[in-house]
Amino acid sequence: xxxxxxxxxxxxxxxxxxxxxxGLVTSYQEQIEWHLRVASLLVGLAVGIMSLxxxxxxxxxxxxx
Length: 65
Fold this sequence. Notes:
Layout (H helix, E strand, L loop, with lengths): L6 H21 L1 H36 L1
């Protein structure tokens, strides 16, 4: 015979696990935001450098012809 799942117990367990995690994320929110901004800046710089290298190589190809 199968036992039924106690939804009250599962909901309390879920809330008990997520509330400390939510508190941790809230307390480190400023640092997380700063790291995300720096990461997006680095990605943007990398894309810009790759685009510049691509354009320079294309100009050099056109000049050789």
